[in-house]
Design the sequence.
């Protein structure tokens, strides 16, 4: 079974740092009413879209889009 929270954090870490990446995953899970350990494949689309939106603040749109695609490939 894939630990999606870990994998998403690993994808985000090179762009925004490990601590902020972990917080990003935690906050999105909180917004969705789940814990990071409860992320499933069906949550990835929503998480990826939110991450893309947030990353445009820290990085350019191209990088944000690339990260979104990497998250979606975890499926």
Sequence:
């Amino acid at each position: 079974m894939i630990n999606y929270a870990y994998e998403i954090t690993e994808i985000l870490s090179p762009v925004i740092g490990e601590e902020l990446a972990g917080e990003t995953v935690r906050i999105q899970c909180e917004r969705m009413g789940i814990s990071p350990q409860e992320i499933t494949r069906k949550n990835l689309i929503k998480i990826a879209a939110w991450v893309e939106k947030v990353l445009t603040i820290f990085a350019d749109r191209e990088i944000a889009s690339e990260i979104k695609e990497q998250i979606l490939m975890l499926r």
Summary: The mean pLDDT is 94. The CA atoms of residues 2 and 43 lie 13 Å apart. The chain has four helices and no strands.
